[in-house]
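Q: what sequence does this backbone want?
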């Protein structure tokens, strides 16, 4: 949603209607070097003409919605977070779906100012869920009505180990729809807390949602609003591994006290901080 402001009159602006105000780009990043980017769609060019209200001979005085459509399945990216079908993911690609960026590149015209209100990101299902409830809500309600006996059903399991921040608000919306039919049933999910997973607290491993200061677990609970989350933690085999003859694994140090150190790692790096952040979890131990 963009808005253009200028002190110039309508006649001046129409005379400069072809001046480029900004460009819209969607790019994938190299997680090893976030300065390296690759476009995944065609650049959209917005000009003065796109912001003019010809009916009233002035600039549009509110934020205008501009749509950028792109297709990840034809972008030759390495998939992270289940955004692509398995056969569409390129494991050799330098660029991944994890660090997508949505750019509004201002050209710096001297006679106007550009304001950005917000950037809303969604796929087809997200569009149906939030913008076309006449499609999505009946489908969900129909399924819930078939399985809502609380003597047999404990809850509904959503997308497993969501890897993308794009999924978070969808959990909240689906949970709200479920409560319309079955207020005593909740949607829940599980997230992975291994030492190299997306929800690890190690910023040397996880580079953040485009920022090392943002822990996705906090973002998930804030946006999804679920009452119950299960976190899978590997107590005994990450990040330390047994000494030989156990085969070496690159990036995982060998130590005779690997069990004790791994348990301490789990407690120090995951559980304490999750509890301190008041994130409601069920702790699932994996070996």
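A:
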């Amino acid at each position: 949603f963009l808005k253009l402001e200028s002190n110039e009159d309508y006649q001046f602006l129409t005379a400069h209607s072809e001046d480029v105000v900004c460009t819209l780009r969607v790019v994938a990043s190299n997680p090893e070097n976030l300065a390296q980017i690759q476009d995944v769609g065609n650049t959209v060019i917005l000009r003065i003409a796109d912001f003019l209200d010809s009916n009233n001979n002035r600039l549009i005085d509110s934020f205008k919605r501009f749509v950028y459509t792109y297709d990840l399945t034809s972008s030759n990216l390495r998939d992270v977070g289940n955004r692509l079908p398995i056969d569409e993911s390129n494991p050799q690609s330098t660029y991944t779906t994890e660090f997508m960026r949505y750019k509004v590149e201002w050209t710096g015209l001297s006679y106007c100012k550009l304001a950005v209100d917000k950037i809303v990101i969604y796929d087809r299902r997200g569009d149906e869920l939030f913008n076309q409830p006449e499609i999505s809500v009946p489908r969900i309600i129909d399924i819930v009505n078939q399985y809502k006996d609380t003597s047999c059903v404990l809850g509904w399991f959503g997308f497993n180990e969501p890897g993308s921040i794009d999924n978070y608000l969808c959990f909240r919306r689906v949970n709200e729809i479920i409560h319309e039919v079955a207020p005593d049933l909740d949607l829940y999910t599980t997230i992975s807390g291994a030492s190299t997973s997306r929800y690890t607290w190690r910023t040397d491993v996880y580079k953040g949602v485009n920022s090392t200061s943002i822990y996705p677990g906090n973002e998930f609970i804030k946006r999804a609003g679920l009452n119950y989350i299960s976190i899978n933690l590997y107590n005994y085999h990450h990040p330390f591994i047994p000494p030989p003859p156990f085969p070496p694994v690159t990036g995982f140090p060998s130590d005779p006290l690997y069990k004790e150190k791994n348990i301490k790692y789990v407690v120090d790096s995951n559980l304490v901080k999750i509890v301190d952040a008041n994130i409601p979890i069920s702790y699932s131990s994996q070996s």
